[in-house]
Amino acid sequence: MPRTLRPGQRAELYVVDVTSGDRRLVHSSSSLLFEAPNWVGDELVVNGDGRLFSVPVAGGEPREIELGGVPDINNDHVVSPDGRTVYVSAEDGHLYAVPIEGGPGRRVTNDRGPDFHHYLHGVSPDGETLAYIGLENRDGRRITNVWTIPSAGGADAQVTDNEFADDGSEYGPDGKWIYFNSERAGQAQLFRIAVGSGEVEQLTNDERVNWFPHPAPDGSAIAYVSFPPGTEGHPADIDDVRLRLLTNDGEVRELTQLFGGQGTMNVPSWSPDSTQFAYVTYPI
């Protein structure tokens, strides 16, 4: 069931300059709860009410992207490196490919049974592989691990195999690492795993609950969502949610504080030149 706005609540789409911290309101709505911006060219792609929309970065009204028979979607979607295809996660548990201008959808994923769901977060720099979170229900427990699958369809490959909560899997710009958040060190922190060798590195280790690492296209920093200490999962409508940057020299910079969480920045949202990224707040 798609999320809806609470009485008196708005969804506000912003872009923020990572050098100055200046932010600009792109679009605001009191009727549609939209989420999870992707940045492609001069457009931002968001989902809302089970559908997909494109909003000009300069501001303007959303344009719906026809999903061509794909079931209602959630807030896990990514755009191919060439900007021609958007890959979406649907509420039936599968991943689909749709032309960015709209058109017939193509199912990418395999049927792994009713207790397995796919949640998309990343696409490799060459556009050939999708990184997703596979959610399995085992004896009443929710198990999440990092998986990959060819974007054209094919055999899945399991990247992590444990009972810790792994999420937010996204390729780095060189394709050598998959970045993700995990509770393997206690509360959620940021990690990366080497493609091929499986070597794991921990990237953050602090008192806050850190989710959804998004590497900049130029590799200079990682943008991520930071929840208050003790937060379980990545809930919606939380006060003191912070958007942070982790730079290559290990410095953590705080760019803004907001009311939000789920839907704020679930997917890659950097501008192509790595100077800005997009996010959503949900003020009441």
Keywords:
Neuraminidase, 6-blade_b-propeller_TolB-like, 284 residues, WD40 repeat protein, four-stranded antiparallel β-sheet, mainly beta, WD40
Task: Specify Rg, calculated over alpha carbons.
Answer: 17 Å
| Helix and strand sequence | EEEEEEEEEEEEEEEEEEEEEEE
Q: Helical region count?
A: 0
Order of strands side by side in the largest beta sheet? 3-4-5-6
Mean pLDDT, all residues: 97
In one word, what is the shape? globular
CATH topology: Neuraminidase
Number of folding domains? 1
What is the class in the CATH system? Mainly Beta
**Separation of the first and last Cα atoms:** 21 Å
Low-confidence stretches: none
Strand runs, count: 23
In percent terms, what proportion of residues is strand?
over 45%
Structural class by SSE content: mainly beta
Sheet of most strands: 4 strands, antiparallel
Q: What is the CATH superfamily? A: TolB, C-terminal domain
CATH architecture: 6 Propeller
Family: Belongs to the TolB family.
Protein name: WD40 repeat protein
Organism: Kribbella pratensis
InterPro entries: 6-blade_b-propeller_TolB-like (IPR011042), WD40 (IPR011659)
Structural overview:
This is WD40 repeat protein. Pfam families: PD40. Belongs to the TolB family. There is one protein chain. The chain is mainly beta and 284 residues long. It has a single domain, classed as Neuraminidase, CATH 2.120.10. Helices cover 0% and strands 51% of the residues. It contains no helices and 23 strands. It has a four-stranded antiparallel beta sheet with strand order 3-4-5-6, with no helix packed on it. Strands 7-8-9-10 form a four-stranded antiparallel beta sheet, with no helix packed on it. Strands 11-12-13-14 form a four-stranded antiparallel beta sheet, with no helix packed on it.
